[in-house]
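Hi Prof. W.,

I finally got the Beta-phosphoglucomutase prediction working! I wasn't sure whether to trim anything, so I left the full sequence exactly as given:
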Amino acid sequence: MPIKAFLFDLDGVIVDTAIYHYQAWRRLANELGFDISEEFNERLKGVSRTDSLDIILAHGGLTLSEARKTELATQKNEWYLELVSRMTSDDILPGVPNFFSQVRKAGLQTALGSVSKNAPLILERIGMNNVFDAIIDGNKISKGKPDPEVFTKGAAELEVSPAECVVFEDAVAGVEAGKRGGMYVVGLGSPDVLTQADLVAPSLETLTVDEVLARFQGEG
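And this is what came out:
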């Protein structure tokens, strides 16, 4: 079956906002009386805001009301937005523009699949809001990764089957989401971490569209 679409996560694939998430979550944890490390922050990659907050509160041994949790999640997001609102096209990861140029030349469709509700703002800040044929973000889904909803909705909007899609992800939860959605998955990062991915590369900078198509074209 031919590959017709590439679906991309945002954080860690197109841009790296992990440091901004970490700074905002750490500020929140500090205000609650404990700290989180960069290593701990790895557990939050690809995870929704609500689920991330639950993980942090469990780490700090805190049990809070839903109303208080909503308050804290909103506060964290405000701090995060202050940081990402300063982003520019300089924040696009190396190799991304060239890879997307190859995608267009190959005639493939593209979708963004991000659990972030701030994805539209980030895309606007970096000048990539008109690059995707479909944008599925946290405002359009009810389940975060590793649930496949963000990617299956992307395929549906592009009117292609999951078997015709390749997902590009840097997080374990995202790789699992792509696989559970019945799609091929390219993991961007370490093969020791992204063990479920069908193909692993350090970043989009080290890949070509032809390599990806050669790997998956005609499988299944």
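The chain has a mean pLDDT of 95. Does that look reasonable to you?

Thanks,
D.
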